[in-house]
Write a structure and sequence with these properties.
By secondary structure, this protein is α+β, with helices and mostly antiparallel strands. The protein has a domain of about 120 residues. Helix content is about 30%, strand content about 25%. It is built from nine helices and 13 strands. It has a six-stranded antiparallel beta sheet, with helices on one face. Strand 3 and strand 4 form a beta hairpin. The radius of gyration is 19 Å and the shape is globular. The protein starts with 8 loop residues before the first strand and ends with a strand. The N terminus is likely disordered.
C-alpha cells in the first residue's frame, strides 16, 4: 500500500478555525473510522476465515490467527491513507487485511516517535508496555515501527530483544528518523490568522517533539504560540496574543471532543522552551 506524500505543508488558513473544524469533519464523513473498521473486520475474516477479531476501540483491533500469528492492529495510518485516496478503499482494505500475520523484526531504520493520547497504549505498566514518555497534558510520545501498512506502537521488550539496543539508544534512533521525515521549516505566524501544519504521513503531531523547530526565531519573534493538536496529522497554530482567535480554537477543540481521530482536547502553549496546557 502506498504511503502518503512526504511533502510537508504549512498553509495559512483563509477560514476561521471553527469553519476548519467543520470542513475536517465533513471530509472524514465519507465513511467514519468505525465504518472503516467494520469493513476491515469483514475483509480480515474473508481472507482469514478462522481469525478471531476483537475491537479495542475505533482505531485498534486485536487479531489472532489459528497458529498464533496476529497481534494488535493500529488503524490510524490506514484510515488516513483512505481519507487521502477514498477511491482506493477496497485496495487499502485488502492490503491491510493481508498484512495480518508475522512481521519482519524491527530495524533501527524503521523506528519513529509518534505523539498520541496517553491512553493509546493500554498495556502500560505490563511486560508488553511500549516505550512511552509523557509530553504535556494527556499527550505522550511513543516509539513505533514504520511498517508497510501502518505505524505500530511497539512493545519495549520486543524492541530491546530484536535490536539489541538500550532504551536510550532506541529513543535516540527513533527521534533521529522522525526528524528526517519532518521537513517542514519554521515560518512566522501572521497576526489574526491561524496556520495549519500537516505532513500527509500522519506525523504532524510528532513535530511537537522537535524543540529546534518551535524555538527557532521565526516561531518565537512574536511571542508565545498556541497549538491545537486537532488530529494526528493536523496542528493549528496561532499567536497567544490573538485572544479572539485563541477562543475560537478552544471552541473548535470542544466541538471535536468525540472525534476518534483526535489526540487531545487541550490547547497547548509554548513558553520558555517547554509545552504547557493553556488554562
Amino acid at each position: 500500500m502506498g504511503k502518503g506524500s512526504s511533502k510537508s505543508v504549512v498553509g495559512i488558513l483563509l477560514s476561521a478555525a471553527v469553519a476548519l473544524a467543520g470542513c475536517s469533519r465533513a471530509e472524514a464523513a465519507a465513511i467514519s473510522p468505525r465504518e472503516f473498521q467494520d469493513r476491515l473486520i469483514a475483509e480480515i475474516q474473508r481472507q482469514h476465515p478462522k481469525a478471531k477479531v476483537a475491537r479495542r476501540d475505533d482505531s485498534q483491533l486485536d487479531v489472532r490467527l489459528p497458529h498464533g500469528e496476529g497481534g494488535t492492529l493500529h488503524l490510524e495510518r490506514a484510515y488516513e491513507v483512505y481519507r487521502g485516496n477514498p477511491g482506493e478503499l477496497d485496495v487499502i482494505l485488502r492490503n491491510f487485511a493481508a498484512s495480518v500475520g508475522p512481521h519482519a523484526p524491527a530495524t533501527v531504520e524503521s523506528l519513529l516517535v509518534l505523539v498520541r493520547h496517553r491512553d493509546s497504549a493500554p498495556s502500560v505498566g505490563t511486560e508488553a508496555a511500549p516505550l512511552m514518555k509523557p509530553l504535556v497534558g494527556d499527550l505522550a510520545a511513543f516509539v513505533a515501527v514504520d511498517r508497510p501498512d501502518s505505524y505500530a506502537i511497539a512493545r519495549s521488550d520486543e524492541l530491546r530483544s530484536e535490536l539489541k539496543l538500550s532504551e536510550a539508544d532506541i529513543w535516540a534512533a527513533a527521534l533521529k528518523n522522525t526528524r528526517s521525515h519532518l521537513t517542514v521549516e519554521p515560518r512566522p505566524i501572521p497576526a489574526g490568522r491561524p496556520a495549519e501544519i500537516s505532513t500527509g504521513e500522519g506525523l504532524a503531531a510528532s513535530l511537537l517533539l522537535i524543540d529546534e523547530f518551535w524555538d527557532a526565531k521565526p516561531m518565537t519573534s512574536d511571542g508565545p504560540l498556541v497549538v491545537a493538536p486537532l488530529a494526528r496529522d493536523v496542528l493549528i497554530v496561532a499567536r497567544l496574543s490573538d485572544t479572539a482567535l485563541v477562543q475560537s480554537m478552544r471552541k473548535m477543540m470542544a466541538e471535536v471532543r468525540d472525534d476518534p481521530n483526535g489526540i487531545t482536547n487541550d490547547l497547548i502553549v509554548r513558553r520558555d522552551g517547554r509545552w504547557h496546557v493553556l488554562r
